[in-house]
Design brief:
By secondary structure, this protein is α+β, with helices and mostly antiparallel strands. It is 22% helix and 34% strand. It folds into two domains: 120 residues, Ribosomal Protein S5, domain 2, CATH 3.30.230.20; 146 residues, lpxc deacetylase, domain 1 (2-Layer Sandwich), CATH 3.30.1700. Strands 11, 12, 13, 14, 15 and 19 form a six-stranded mixed β-sheet that branches. It has a five-stranded mixed β-sheet with strand order 2-3-9-4-5, with helices on one face. A three-stranded antiparallel β-sheet has the order 6-7-8, covered by helices on one side. The longest helix is centred in the last third of the chain and has 14 residues.
Length: 272
């Protein structure tokens, strides 16, 4: 049986949040067995804490948002999933973690650099017992019973900048590190002003975000020919880890984003 894991020692990272653009420091501390993944708002009065397994308020928006306290945590949660970390306390000095390079790879490398500690208690998984799905117009996201964790994702954008992309694989920690974690967040060039008006992307720049023009990213080079769909898979893994435990299931996604991801998280919670 797999054992629970935490980090060997504390560390910190800092930068600006991707969405709000505010400077933030994130402090990571080892967690006791069965303590789970806990976020703490160090900057707020009484330092409110949120444990993922106890969540009752997950907003279904363009970013993962937990109550009124923590948001845009999908990249850091994806890295925790990839490092197979079950127990950790993360203290933030703002509402969202630093955006770093817009992917999960720097979070993952930092976690592994301090060392991952195996604990005594057995790791708990969420096993899907029956098909569950959500849909909205031309978008679909479903999860089906399986003893492995496999994701098949179809991404489709009009025009040549992204077009249609497809990713499908059994995802484990090795596949995640090599094929998914380095994929950066993205948007279309024509979306930039609209997103900024809505309050998104204030910490984004041409280094941490792929701004896709007709012939590819502006002032940037793709890490994978299909980097956008890989980042969508990264976001999906991070959003699913809001459940606080790794999940076993066969995931089928068609043009899914945070809204459907988080709606599926709610359905999985209700089914347990």
């Amino acid at each position: 049986m797999e054992k629970q894991r935490t980090i060997e020692k504390e560390f910190s990272l800092e930068g600006n949040g991707l969405q709000r653009g505010l400077p933030v420091k994130a402090f990571f501390y080892p967690g006791d067995e069965d303590s789970g993944i806990i976020f703490v708002r160090r900057d707020l009065e009484n330092k409110p804490s949120i444990r993922l397994g106890d969540l009752t308020d997950i907003a279904t928006d363009r970013r993962s948002k937990i109550g009124d306290y923590v948001e845009t945590v999908e990249h850091i949660l994806a890295a925790l999933w990839g490092a197979e970390v079950d127990n950790i306390r993360i203290e933030l000095t703002s509402s969202e973690p630093p955006g770093l390079d817009g992917s999960a790879i720097l979070f993952l490398e930092a976690l592994k650099a301090v060392g991952i500690k195996t604990q005594r208690r057995e790791r708990e998984f969420i096993e899907v017992k029956k098909p569950l799905w959500v849909e909205d117009k031309e978008s679909f996201l479903g999860i089906f019973p399986s003893q492995t964790f496999k994701i098949s994702y179809i991404l489709e954008y009009p025009g040549p900048a992204i077009g249609r992309q497809f990713f499908s694989d059994i995802v484990d920690s090795e596949v995640f590190q090599k094929e998914i974690a380095p994929a950066r967040t993205f948007c279309l060039k024509e979306e930039v002003n609209s997103l900024l008006r809505q309050g998104y992307g204030k910490g984004a720049n041409l280094k941490n975000t792929l701004v896709m023009a007709k012939n590819g990213p502006i002032d940037n080079i793709l890490r994978f020919p299909d980097e956008p769909v890989r980042h969508k898979v990264l976001d999906l893994i991070g959003d699913l880890y809001l459940l606080g435990k790794p999940i076993k299931g066969r995931v089928i996604a068609i043009r899914s984003g945070h809204k459907l991801n988080l709606e599926l998280v709610e359905k999985i919670k209700e089914s347990q």
